[in-house]
Amino acid sequence: MATKNKLIEALKLHFGFDKFKGNQEAIIRNLLDGKDTFVLMPTGGGKSLCYQLPSLMLDGTAVVISPLIALMKNQVDAMRNYSEEDGVAHFINSSLNKVAIDQVKSDILSGKTKLLYVAPESLTKEDNIEFLKQVNISFYAVDEAHCISEWGHDFRPEYRRIRPIINEIGTRPLIALTATATPKVQHDIQKNLGMINATVFKSSFNRPNLYYEVRPKTSNVDKDIIKYIKQQEGKSGIIYCLSRKKVEELAELLSVNGIKVLPYHAGMDSVTRTENQDAFLLEKVDVIVATIAFGMGIDKPDVRYVIHYDIPKSLEGYYQETGRAGRDGGEGQCITYYINKDLQKLEKFMQGKPIAEQEIGRQLLMETAAYAESSMCRRRLLLHYFGEEYKDENCGNCDNCLNPKKQVEAKDLLCAVIETVIALKEEFKTEHVIDVIMGVKTNQITAYRHNDLEVFGCGQSEDEKVWNAVIRQALISGYLIKEIENYGLLKVTPSGHKFLDKPQSFKIVKDADFDEIEEEVPIKGGASCAVDPELFSILKDLRKKMAKRLELPPYVIFQDPSLEAMATTYPITIEELQNIPGVGAGKAKRYGEEFVKVIKIHVDENEIERPEDLRVRTIANKSKLKVHIIQAIDRKIALDELAESKDLDFDELLDEIEAIVYSGTKISIDYFLHEIMEEDHIEEVFEYFKECESDSLEDAINEFGMDYTEEEIRLIRIKFLSEMGN
Fold first, then answer.
1. Which residues of 61-92 are buried (b: 16+ CB within 10 A; e: fewer)?
2. 619 φ, ψ to 5°?
3. How many angstroms separate the Cα of 228 from the Cα of each of 29, 59, 612?
4. How far apart are CA 17 and CA 7, in angstroms?
5. Are 690 and 660 in contact (CB under 8 A)?
6. Which whole-number Å values give the CA distances from 195 to 172, 188, 289, 329, 349, in the listed order?
7. Of 138, 385, 482, 612, which shows the fewest CB atoms inside 10 Å?
8. C-alpha torsion 543→548→550→554, nearest 10
């Protein structure tokens, strides 16, 4: 077993660090001892080092199974930068041709290669399995291990085949790593990889430097985002959108407003995608607007903000995506725009999937809604979701803690909830419990005759939001538990039974009503800073020029904390530079000369920049899509088929058609209407629009909501506007 000094020496030699972070040392020792190791560590905690350093210290080649080609490329480049031997790290995936693969295999067999990255799809290929049987494998690492679980936010079926293939190639110690896993997902991973007896290292999921905020998604959302980005000038940020269409539109809008931005989504060709990703890493652009296809492969430590234009499908996804901010320990602002309608859209997307999958998806969405609408500390809620208790009432770095809402006594309400859960024999989910408390006669309630229970309707004086808040805060306080394996059934804990026998004070914060929020919450960051900000800026410029010249991402040369340390201790020789955190001997020799020269001649100057006043420019309507829609309607193409062909949600297509008729173009959708509705039904709604004073959709839904769907009402309104207005 390696002594402590040996480990620190290896860390300093290869990576330039004087000490390990968190659990890193214990994890590495466990792996060096040949034991299976399971690592749960948040993004930015230093997961990669847990297998990179042992691979350099052990005989043979470590095989890292990783899901994204971009991630492999970045990690291989980073490893080569730490070493003087390019063959030290390689990857095998579908992007390589036969000549390149032969070179990789030659380096591995000659003993040069310490780390080999493979995609799970490449691992399953027969010739790769046969080749790996000849290799002296030191250990296997499974990165992004949550991909194994159906409850994980990024499930990949091919991950389920990893264990049988490892058994075929030859069993060696196994390390599995993930930045996000609930207790349920953790168990799934261990069971599937056959590592139930592995030593588990779970770091805290708390990222104190990340600021969490949820904003109501209003019609001003675009303007709000532009204003925010302008205030973060020169900082890197990622904006996540749900659809490819929104990615393209928002990127164009930001661009015409003078923001250096590029889009990224799976529908783009791989060359453009790679170019856009590299432009962001090389800091040619400040902002990437992306679908969730972007990010797992991004090892950029100084992303200063992550904006969610649309709410993600799960809290695991949210945690993973927000975790891309502030990985260097500096400032990271995580701002999410939320409106319940977005969740309804996500539910629609699930239709047609297997029932069990829909049920899992729906539960994950409900957890996300609970997080977004809650007025509790966001950090506390998030950590509870990952099975971690956060004891502080106020974290001081989320919107709810910086702008706390008034607490109200809810002792009696909690008693009512516990009594109802017991009366329902602990066999129902949150929605059903609330329906019983509020006296709502759903089909399910009458079928089970729960309307005959004594507790039925005992809480009609409070609204649904209050009951949701009581249940959520009872879960966090340990009075209730939710059986996630069993579709989220609510159970009463021993503490809950004690509370019912002897109630005590139980205060709740009522959930936010996103229609009423108007005040701006002060923004708080957690940025570290150099003693000499001027020099820090000069060093960043030098790093950027060098990165451009070498075609490398700037952070590969030196990370921000290293530059900050240089701007604090002023190293003027290569030897002194090696004492800077994150600067090993290899890096100092490779890149240090110009940096020590600049530090030597540095003079004290100071510049202050103020963000310009904001003026939002809009982009002209894209006529191309509109022309296509008009032509398709002329050819009588069914509107649902038209939406699908243009990769639009049906609601989005209706938005476009409404814009067409509002702008004065006459179209006829009678052919489609008559396919889906009776003539007299069309006439009834058409007559309504003739007689009412406004074309308000809300009023029409209130009038006809029980008889017709929102889409049907919108379609007839389009017919009305076109025939009567154009």
1. bbbbbbbbbbbbbbbbebbbbbbeeebbbbbb
2. -100, 145
3. 45, 51, 12
4. 11
5. no
6. 12, 10, 38, 32, 35
7. 612
8. 40
Q: What is the DSSP letter of 16?
A: -
Instruction: Report CA torsion sign: 586, 589, 590, 596.
Output: positive
The residue type of 3 is: T
Secondary element (H or E) of residue 332: strand 332-338
Q: Which two tokens stand for residue 96?
A: 């390589």
d(CA 178, CA 66): 11
pLDDT of residue 19: 87
What are the backbone angles phi and psi of residue 412, rounded to the nearest 5°? -65, -35
**Please, are residues 446 and 384 in contact by the beta-carbon 8 Å criterion?**
no
Report residues of the chain scoring pLDDT below 70.
1-4, 44, 68-71, 84, 152-154, 293-299, 351-352, 484-487, 512-531, 552-553, 555-556, 582, 584-586, 603-623, 662-664, 693-695, 724-726
Q: What string of H, E and C letters represents the secondary structure of 611-663? A: CCCCCCCCCCCCHHHHHHHHHHHHCCCCHHHHHHHCCCCHHHHHHHHHHHHHC
Write down the pLDDT at residue 439.
92
Whole-angstrom distance, CA of residue 223 vs CA of residue 215? 13
Note whether 347 and 226 are within 8 A (CB): no
Tell me: the pLDDT tens digits for 108-117? 898 889 999 9
Query: Encoding tokens for residue 680?
Result: 């007299």
CA-to-CA separations, 157 to 121, 177, 711, in angstroms, rounded: 10, 17, 36
Total residues found in the chain within this entry = 726
Give Cα separations from 224 to 251, 311, 436, 614 (angstroms).
15, 16, 41, 10
Please name each of the domains of the chain with its CATH number: 4-202 (3.40.50.300), 210-401 (3.40.50.300), 407-509 (1.10.10.10), 533-600 (1.10.150.80), 623-725 (1.10.10.1390)
pTM, full prediction: 0.66
Determine the Cα angle at 176 with ends 175 and 180, to 5°. Answer: 150
- Our separate counts of H helices and E strands in the chain read 34, 17
277 Cβ contact list (under 8 Å, min separation 6): 70, 264, 288, 294, 297, 298
Q: Tokens 């799809």: give the residue.
A: 121
CB atoms within 10 A of CB 690: 9
What is the token pair recorded at 568? 């604090």
